[in-house]
Design goal:
Number of helices: 3
Distance between the termini: 106 Å
Shape: rod-shaped
Low-confidence stretches: none
Radius of gyration: 35 Å
Structural class: mainly alpha
Mean pLDDT: 87
Helix content: over 70%
Number of strands: 0
Strand content: under 5%
């Protein structure tokens, strides 16, 4: 059965195929645009999260360095941990 005959048998015209092809093309383009936008948004989110993680890692490294320094100073001057955590008014 030829294409034209099939179309007539099913009550369709060749213009319908052209319109459907255009609509399908538009849908595909819209879908691609949406996917590109989503990828762009996700890349920005990853970049922001990496930046935040880097900031927090630096802050944590600073805290660790301060704790190590405090521990060295406490051991050098013979300060017990219990003494260093008590309020200053209780040390007398």
């Amino acid at each position: 059965m030829a294409g034209g005959e099939w179309l007539r048998t099913n009550g369709l015209h060749s213009e319908h195929l052209t319109l459907w092809e255009q609509e399908l093309g538009n849908l595909m383009t819209d879908k691609q645009d949406n996917l590109k936008s989503e990828v762009r948004d996700l890349k920005k989110q990853v970049k922001d999260l990496e930046k935040e993680l880097n900031r927090k890692e630096k802050a944590m490294a600073e805290v660790v360095a301060l704790l190590v320094l405090k521990k060295k100073l406490d051991s050098k001057y013979g300060v017990d941990e219990e003494d260093s955590t008590a309020p200053s008014s209780d040390r007398n």
